[in-house]
Design brief:
Radius of gyration: 15 Å
Number of strands: 0
Number of helices: 1
Shape: rod-shaped
Order of helices and strands: H
Strand content: under 5%
């Protein structure tokens, strides 16, 4: 359980970074929200 708690912040950063990169590539083709 202790090793899982150490892994959670790193996995959050990786998921956040890949989501940001994916959003940057998809932005030119995305429709506006409004």
């Amino acid at each position: 359980m202790h090793s899982l708690k150490r892994f959670i912040p790193a996995s959050f950063v990786v998921l956040w970074a890949t989501g940001f990169i994916g959003a940057r590539y998809a932005m030119p083709w995305a429709e506006p929200f409004t």
